[in-house]
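EI: anyone free to look at a 667-residue chain?
SC: sure, send it
EI:
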Amino acid sequence: MKHAEAKHRIEELVKQLKRYDYEYHVLDSPTISDVEYDRLRRELERLEHEHPDLVRDDSPTQRVGGEVLEQFEKVRHEVPMLSLDNAFDEGDLRAFDARLQKRVGSVSYSVEPKIDGLAASLRYRNGRLERAATRGDGAIGEDITHNVRTIRSVPLQLDRSVDLEVRGEIYMSKSAFLKLNEARKAQGMSPFKNPRNAAAGTMRQLDSRVAARRELDMFVYSVFVPDAEADQPQHEILSMLRELGFKVNPHILRAGDIDTVIDAVRNLEATRQDFPYDIDGVVVKVNERHLYEHIGYTVKSPRWAIAYKFQAEEAMSRVRSIHVQIGRTGQATPVATLEPVELAGSTVSRATLHNEDYVAKKDIRIEDYVVVRKAGDIIPEVVGVVFERRSGTEKPFQMPHSCPQCQSALKRIEGEADHFCPNPECPARNVQQLIHFASREAMNIEGLGIRLIERLYDEGHLKRIPDIYRLKEQRQQLISHSGLGERSVDKLLENIEASKTNSLEQLLFGLGIRHVGKKVSRLISSHFPSIDAILESSREELLAIEEIGPKIADSVVTFFASEANRRLLEELKALGLTMRYHQTGSDQDTLKDLTFVLTGSLQTMTRREARDRIESLGGRVSSSVSGNTDYLLAGDNPGSKLEKARRRDVEVLDEAAFERLIDTRRK
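SC: here you go
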């Protein structure tokens, strides 16, 4: 075929196949058979192979992937990708409506299923896909264009030559997820826990061929357009997006009042399992977009939209056994072993039962059927017993009288619910103390993890904390018997040696003193900046420190009064560990006199890391919102603290706003 004829035929085939892709992947209404589609695609591939100079960027053949990046480029969003405030019940939705009524009068709403996927933005120049990016922290995301180009529902070229940015949710359907996991199992790979993780993991692939094989999809729900179209109602904007070739969720509806919204939310929650993809809530937006600027924004979210979160998933399981686990302080905690059950994307087979009183109050028995829920979609908890399933053969739990590890008699402190193993040489206590000491929050010895500590303990290399710093004397044995290899052993010993220079508060926390967490360790160390000063401090001097109460003071005094613990400190001092507090410089007053409350799941750091950072900058972290709270740092799924903060007019920060606050106060 001549060059001109090939060019014409390629253009014709690209146009046809784009139309068929749109019908199949967007409208879900194909007009030709798979056989005919494949025939046309093979013809296009042959012509492009014969005339490589005629291959178009928007050709369907360019969705197979092939580009491999060395790393992801950072992208600054021209308009921040804000998160949404959450509603958890009908009252929250009515309160949202009441605030809007007070501010702008009556409004209508767009009710949209909240897809459980990965938020992304797509930027088009002259109608051509130019860049795709993840949400990131809302201000800065990562360039994922190479992967998004493989998603067949995303148009590479629009029918209109326009500049715009659309936003939506990348997701994996339930059928594609099952297909992917079956393939991974066949290859001996671990399956993904849920479709959301699979979608997020796919977008993190540097090789776009991986994304092309995984059948991702995308619904779009908003657009930034020229001023002439910006004030169109949300339902008209969605219609425009459909006309441009984007996939818009077919279950979105317009509601004239909050009662209609609530009915729609109830219906979506009741039918959520019928969807071919996961939804975890409903987004409710004001339909009148021309009111958005007047309604306004908080630091982290628009005031004209809210996300209703479905109730945490619950599942029924059966208690197969209850055993007692000994912690580093000797605390004996009942733990239920459950029949494995899938819950909120993970397999749950254990749940803490806290203490003897907790088990008795809920009347949890071995072989009981129980309802298990992930509190905050994170921590498994037993909600209650399914009493109607009892057969009479269930066995009540009896708290053992002796430690399951060392057989010492367990003791219960008067006025407290917990039992303790008093034996300081208990193997379970010793292992947990070693794990705690080396953990990231304490001495942060990278490479010395739980499994390795357990193995080294069993092999006799580690028995007490000072043994960690004597491992270098056993280098050759470790190389020969630990299975780590020479380089790994040397790296581990290097990390152990480096931990000797840690500041006093890390050592103090690592010692595992009861009631002394990381925050208290820093408070004590900043007031008594050497271990000798702490040893000489009295109960009254400790109580004089703000936020240190009688329980903490008594625990510290008791710990350092012990001759065994004093000998331990002398031993660590002789091994070269730092026994002084490192001042943090001018940064230590950055957040001075500010009180924060943390809620929800943060993306760029854990809640513990956020707390540590606030306290290292001189701020305070409280567990509940009160009149003394200055800021609420909120992540995803923030819970009731968010509404309490609103009622008290406490400023709410997302992670990006939190960083800006720190930067501002440093200047």
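EI: The two ends are 69 Å apart (CA to CA).
SC: 👍
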